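We emphasize that the prediction below concerns an isolated chain of 213 residues; any contacts that depend on oligomerization or on bound cofactors are therefore not represented. The input was used exactly as deposited, without trimming of termini.
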Amino acid sequence: MIDVDGTLVDSVPDLAYCVDETMKAMGKEPWGEAKVRHWVGNGVPKLVERSLTGELEGTPDAAEYDKAYPIFLELYAVNTSKRSCLYDGVKEGLDYMKVQGYTLGCVTNKAEQFTLPILKDLGIFDYFGLVVSGDTLAKKKPDPLPLLHSAEFFGIKPADSLMLGDSVSDVKASRAAGFDIICMSYGYNHGEDIRDTNPDLVIDSMAELKDYL
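Result of the prediction step, given as a token string:
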């Protein structure tokens, strides 16, 4: 199972654009891409909270959030993949796993209304036999439910399964589900080194998967 934002796709340029345009609509100063890059990875609602408070775990004013959230959704609906791109090595890694006969699925905290378009627009949707988005199930990563659901869907034991991600939430979900976990060095982990969360392996490009799988 493979994560989307920070693993397959660098989606920050689009997300940062939408955050900044939302801030302008709210009469606030834009944050810029570098700041937003530290906030991505836990779904759009959390991203909007962070953009309103300027903090990873801040709680915005409820009325302000209720005004900002639909503004962001409207912007992101038409800016899902205008500036986003696949990371170098993604196609090579996916092609290698496909040729080797690996069962591939996608599990992300991004809502389905944004996940499916970005996978299709960037030409990788057809690699996956299952896409589990942030609103597919009752819980999302770091809860193990999306991974356990995926393993059950494919009829594969968790112990024979692997998560490919980039964040602490991917590591926590994988450990709780009994999956192995490989992390990308370049992803979104709120400015922290992903190696500190002790995944089984950290690689710089999905093209390296052929050396390890």
